Amino acid sequence: SPASPASRAPPSSEGGRSWTLSLRCGARRGWRFESAVPRRQVGGGHRPRPQVDTSQLLRRRRKQHEAPLRPFFPGSEDHDEVVLRPGCTIPQPRRYTTRDWFHVLRTWPFSKLWRRISLAVLTFTGWATLVTALWSVKKPACMLGLVPHSLLGSALGLLLVYRTNSANDRFWEGRRMWERVVSSSRDLVALMLAHSAHVGFERVQRTCRLVSAFSLCLSEYVVGPKNKKHALPRWHLPGEEEDFIAVSSIPPCRVVQLLLQETTQISNSEDGLFTNRERSQLNQMVWNLQRAVGTGERLVQTPIPQSYVRHTSRFLTLWLATLPFGFCHLIG
């Protein structure tokens, strides 16, 4: 019968290939297999495991391993945004290779970075062309040499390197902050699931929803609801709790308050497996989420000083504006 292959015991290592082929052949013919795992006793009764459509399962796994992953948001094919590599279990950004150089050159006019700096680049290019054309017509006797630019180039390089290092440090600090959020969320849910028999399924489910709500609220609180680029997952909470979180000026902290209410209300277990030690560990994980909110606020509210940015911009503008006067007599 069609269900007979699944009623046998799991195959050994020698017959694994034939077992897989039989499952695929049965899936193509539309067979449905029942699992050989014994039924689980729930609430004093027996609940049978649901039937699994093997063809749909195989099709889903094939799509996961073969279909390329889409980027988080559209318009990221110009290599200015993060694009995920296909076929990876852990989402990884695509790395630059030597085969991409032609694609990078071809998409240069559509680059978002080029759109941001195109006005300044075209302005200085036109200014250099104008200075060179005027020099070729009039040819003045005295011209500015390259010695001042060579002396000031070192100072300008230090200013640009400091700004680049500051931006890189801020990027890595934000990445470490999100890593702490992910690790604390996983530890919190894992410890709750380990004591789910005492804590209760409803409390565990509510904790998982609050953890998802914290990630969503933190992302929207730091970057703003209009500036987020990732397709964040939705979370389901009662209507009064959603309003309770939405009216707060700091929604992630309000979610932390709800999480603390859940963890502090768990009583000690009679068997001694859940005591004040486990409760303190849960509270410590929740406090780690609270500290991540402060880290995000520090990153957003403490940019590079405006005086330093303006001084660098003025210095670079003056250096580039006078550079054609030192090169025109050499090029012409």
TrEMBL record:
A single Gene Ontology CC term: plasma membrane
Highest taxon listed in the record's lineage: Eukaryota
Keywords, ordered alphabetically: Cell membrane, Ion transport, Membrane, Transmembrane, Transmembrane helix, Transport
Segments for region (Disordered): 38-60
Compartmental location: Cell membrane
Membrane topology: Multi-pass membrane protein
Any one GO MF annotation of this record: chloride channel activity
Annotated transmembrane regions: 117-137, 143-162
Keyword match Cytoplasm: no
Pfam families given in the database record: Bestrophin_2
Keyword Transcription: no
Protein name: Bestrophin homolog
